[in-house]
Amino acid sequence: MTQTNDPLDTTGQQSKGAHAKRDRAGKGEHSHESRSRSGKGLHRRKFLGGMAGVGFAAVGAATGTFALLTDGNTFKASAADTALNIPDLLEGTTADGTTTFTLTAKTGTAEVISGVTSTTAGYNGPLLGPTMKWTNGSTVLLNITNSLGADTSVHFHGAHIPPKMDGGPQNAFADGETWSPTFEIKDEAKTLWYHPHALGTTAEQVVHGLAGMIIVEDDSDASAALPSEYGVDDIPLILQCLAVDTSGDIKYNIAGYLASGLTYPVLCNGTNVDATTLGFTATKKRTRFRVLNASPSDILTIQRGDGGTLTQVATDQGYLTEATEVTSIRLVAGARAEFVLDLEAAVTLQTVVTTGWIRGGSGTYDFLTVTPDASDTPDDLPSTLNTITRYDTTDFAARTITLGQSGQLMTINGSAGTTMDSMATIMTTLDAEEIWTITNSTQLEHSFHLHDVPFQLIEINGEEPTGVDLGWFDTYEVVGGGSIKIAMKFTDFTDDTYMYMLHCHLLQHEDEGMMAALMVMDS
After folding, report:
1. Residue 256: helix, strand or coil by DSSP?
2. How far is the C-alpha of 152 from the C-alpha of 171, rounded, in Å?
3. Is 163:216 a contact under the CB 8 Å cutoff?
4. For residue 320, which phi and psi values (nearest 5 degrees)?
5. What is the predicted pLDDT for the residue at 404?
6. Is the dihedral of CA 396, 503, 33, 409 positive or negative?
7. Which of 275, 355, 371, 443 satisfies CB 3.0 to 4.6 Å to 480 for a cystine?
8. Nearest Cα to Cα of residue 401 among 16, 1, 28, 4
9. Is pLDDT larger for residue 285 or for residue 62?
């Protein structure tokens, strides 16, 4: 392994400009081509130019205030064609203070594009997985059986758990085996997800359907005040933009994405919404939505079709300090957000797809119409949801993490992490407080994800964060030629054998080597 044993002081000048700047097309990675979607439902799309590998000077607004993307025409909510599928809630069994969940990763078939059967994979079913609910302070045990016919692992994305239980590449297990991690839930209320994380196969397994949501509950005042009845007023939305050929084969690597005749379907909870607007009847006036971008690479922006606001209450790693009105929510691959809607009339939610890799989706889709059928009067939301003490980074140890490229390999600090031995390793100690500058030396889009602990954004392309960017994150966009500064504290867990990962969550980049190891040692 290439080891970085000590933090590096850095005084390098940050690139100027807000992270809002995303409009300049970046240099090509191999061959960057964005394609508008073909197929039915053109009346529901307002196509935008794809922005593969968008660079530093990019789209004109930040995450919390990203401008509404339409072609200027009146955009009316359309009648729902199909009811929203809600993933099953996985029931655990509790004994001796431990709640046990049972999952089987297996192959299946599903219609990813209309009328065509695709080979897929899922947990306890043919596509995607059930939702798990974990409770802060409880102990869980997961019995996960691999029936895929290939090695896999299961990573609990965003969870603060021991590295031996994190589900990274060191936790890969073979077909026919059962992996049984157990740990205490130290996380506060938030939305997490689970997916494979074995070396070189993450993109292939995730795009075929191996993904599911985790809801962490706690006893905070904010949790008590927000909707929490799963499937009634607390709704998971797993969004994916995939690449599929006319035979239904789901693509995951360069060769697949450069094939001819591809379409880029958008799925919501496993249902294709290219030509279908899903429907949900809200039996409470206030409904909470948990949105996950489970795409391998494309960026998804969530907005209302009528131009109204969403009341965002949480980022990746939990509640904001207060409910915040936003016109849209921009999610890079792997990111999550929570928002609520108080409705008197039907509203259609849209996702704007921006190409994140060499090819990908492009366009605006009406994916869900929410129709209220309720007579209750919800209480006002609390004026405060959470207390977030901003880090004073004056005495934090500094590091620079450089996202790079070497031919067709992607690198972190110059090393391509295609094996455990070849990846760079960051060494730190328990309770260390650090500030990292994540520098994108390419003109490609990257989605930086840190395992183990949440981070605060300190700078986004040289500017201080505002609004919802003052929340807690584990996954964040690093535009081509740009940089972010993040701060974190490594708490609770150490291990001299098992490591956490830090990597690009564009899954193809991860598989191509943009991944490094993080080892937290006793101080």
Report:
1. helix
2. 8
3. no
4. -75, 170
5. 98
6. positive
7. 443
8. 4
9. 285
Dig out the tokens for 294 from the structure. 């489970």
Rounded Cα distance between 458 and 455, Å, is 9
Tell me how crowded residue 105 is: count the other CB atoms within 10 A of its CB: 25
pLDDT at 80: 63
Cβ atoms of residues 120 and 250 within 8 Å: yes
d(CA 478, CA 281) in angstroms, rounded, equals 37
Which residues have CB under 8 Å from 115's CB, separation 6+? none
C-alpha–C-alpha distance, residues 7 and 403, integer Å: 17
Q: Write out pLDDT tens, residues 458-467.
A: 999 999 999 9
HSE-CB at 226 with a 13 A cutoff on CA atoms is 32
pLDDT at 81: 73
Strand partners, 448: 476, 504
- Fill in the amino acid letter for 391: Y
pLDDT tens digits, one per residue of 476-509: 999 999 999 999 999 999 999 999 999 999 999 9
- Token pair of 19, please? 């992270």
Q: Are 482 and 384 in contact (CB under 8 A)?
A: no
Tokens 């890079």 appear where? Answer: 332
Note whether 316 and 456 are within 8 A (CB). Answer: no
Half-sphere exposure of 274 (CA within 13 A, CB side): 21
pLDDT beyond 70 at 331: yes
- Token pair in block for residue 365: 């889709």
- b/e 314-351 (16+ beta carbons within 10 angstroms → b): bbbbbbbeebbebbbbbbbbbbbbbbbbebeebbbbbb
Tokens of 512: 């191509």
CB of 215 within 8 A of CB of 289? Answer: no
The Cα 89–Cα 385 span in angstroms is: 26
Tell me the C-alpha distance between 98 and 46, whole Å.
49
DSSP 65-88: GPPP---SS--PPPPP-EEPPPPP
* Rounded-to-integer distance, Cα 385 and Cα 399, Å: 32
Q: What is the pLDDT of residue 523?
A: 85
Q: How many residues does the chain have?
A: 523
How far is Cα 315 from Cα 319, in angstroms, rounded to an integer?
Answer: 7
The amino acid at residue 270 is: G
Query: Which two structure tokens, joined as six digits, stand for 343?
Result: 């409705």
Q: Mean pLDDT over all residues of the chain?
A: 88
pTM of the model: 0.87
CA pair distance 373, 370, nearest whole angstrom: 10
φ/ψ of 511, rounded to 5, equals -65, -25
φ, ψ for residue 200, nearest 5 deg: 80, -5
Note whether 486 and 438 are within 8 A (CB). yes
Distance separating alpha carbons of residues 7 and 401, to the nearest angstrom: 10
pLDDT confidence tier of residue 210, bands split at 50, 70 and 90: very high
Enter the tokens of residue 334: 């792997």
114: Cα within 13 Å, side-chain hemisphere = 10
